[in-house]
């Protein structure tokens, strides 16, 4: 099967800015220094799926872990790795996003990669905790084909780079639906000034949630797709990945992770019974050395009384990233001719009617 780039727009032409905080230069997760993002996209007939890779840094993550936390907003999901993230407070592999039935293949790819880099895993040191998130792209993708392989996961990892995040119908977002429109991968960032230093908080989302007609834009408009076959039952999912270079410890990151839900709620989501809504948050500051031999280590952390700035950034960046996932996606025809229109097309139509 060929791997192809997904169809996507330049979100600068359709941007719906959210909140009051300034955006980073690229308005994406990669505004946080050191983070890399890559995709592998599969489009072949009824196969419309893929893998998205997020690397907190380009080195050996098992050896140099990042402090992390997660938050389950609604737990109808099949993620891998959250239990250990919340017990030990670290991430030690890249994060892969994919469709629901491809979690095992992506997890295996991460484990094999970690073993190749660290032959002592499971022998003279601990085993490795792979981290994979998923959403169900079944309406637009033949999910039963289980088309994603370990090689596709490795391709996404190999494609990871630190430039602008490619968004829309690409990678894991290829077959996703959001508020009845075409969803996918979206990203946004906020620039923060703390103690005279510039920091960033970025969000990357995999969007596959929301009832058609429930979406609320920042200006109060409520778009609804024209497609009559779009179901109204909320059975979707969203994975929110938040990253920052602000020095935070695990407990603080768990608090920041919860605020991703505020960004989803601003859009009109109520996290339905059948929805898997999950946030993973990490900081690239204060890396954790797997081979640390000191009995006591010191770390720089944010003064808790300043954390509201991070809360606001998490909500605003999540909200804008979701909108970007829809704005960057063109009209899409998937499995069996199933159609999803683009939010950007709806906005174009509104502009035409206004003129």
Total tally of structural domains:
1
Please outline the major beta sheet: 6 strands, mixed
Q: Give the termini distance in whole angstroms.
A: 45 Å
CATH class: Alpha Beta
Question: How large is the share of residues in beta strands?
Answer: 25-35%
Give the helix level as a range of percent: 10-25%
Tally of extended strands? 14
Judged by helices, strands and strand pairing, the structural class is alpha+beta
The residue ranges in which pLDDT falls below 50 over 5 or more consecutive positions are 1-9
The gross shape turns out to be globular
CATH homology superfamily name: L-amino peptidase D-ALA esterase/amidase
CATH topology: L-amino peptidase D-ALA esterase/amidase
Mean pLDDT: 93
Rg over alpha carbons: 19 Å
Q: Given the structure, what is the number of helices? A: 7
Walk across the major sheet and give the strand order.
Answer: 4-3-12-11-10-9
Mind telling me which CATH architecture this is? Answer: 4-Layer Sandwich
The helix/strand series, from N terminus to C terminus, equals EEEHEEHEHEEEEEHHEHEEH
């Amino acid at each position: 099967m060929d791997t192809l780039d997904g169809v996507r727009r330049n979100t600068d032409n359709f941007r719906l800015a959210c909140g009051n905080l300034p955006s980073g230069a690229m308005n994406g997760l990669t505004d946080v220094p050191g983070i890399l993002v890559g995709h592998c996209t599969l489009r072949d007939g009824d196969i419309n799926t893929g893998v998205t890779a997020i690397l907190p840094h380009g080195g050996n993550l098992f050896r140099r872990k990042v402090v992390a936390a997660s938050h389950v907003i609604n737990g109808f999901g099949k993620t891998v790795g959250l239990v250990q993230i919340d017990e030990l407070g670290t991430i030690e592999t890249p994060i892969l996003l994919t469709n629901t039935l491809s979690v095992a293949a992506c997890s295996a790819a991460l484990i094999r990669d970690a073993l190749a880099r660290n032959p002592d895993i499971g022998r003279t040191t601990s085993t490795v905790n792979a981290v994979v998130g998923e959403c169900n792209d079944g309406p637009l993708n033949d999910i039963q084909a289980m088309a994603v392989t370990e090689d596709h996961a490795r391709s996404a990892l190999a494609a990871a780079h630190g430039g602008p995040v490619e968004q829309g119908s690409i990678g894991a977002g290829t077959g996703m639906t959001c508020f009845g429109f075409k969803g996918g991968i979206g990203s946004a960032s906020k620039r923060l000034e703390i103690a005279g230093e510039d920091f960033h908080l970025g969000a990357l989302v995999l969007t596959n949630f929301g009832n058609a007609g429930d979406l609320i834009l920042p200006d109060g408009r409520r778009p609804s797709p024209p497609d009559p076959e779009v179901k109204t039952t909320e059975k979707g999912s969203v994975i929110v990945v938040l990253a920052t270079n602000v020095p935070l410890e695990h407990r603080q990151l768990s608090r920041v992770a919860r605020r991703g839900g505020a960004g989803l709620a601003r859009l009109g989501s109520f996290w339905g019974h059948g929805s898997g809504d999950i946030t993973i948050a990490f900081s690239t500051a204060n890396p954790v050395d797997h081979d640390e031999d000191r009995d006591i280590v010191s770390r720089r952390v944010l003064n808790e009384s300043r954390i509201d700035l991070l809360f606001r950034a998490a909500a605003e960046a999540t909200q804008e990233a979701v909108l970007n996932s829809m704005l960057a996606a063109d009209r899409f025809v998937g499995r069996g001719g199933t159609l999803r229109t683009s939010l950007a097309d709806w906005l174009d139509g509104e502009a035409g009617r206004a003129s």
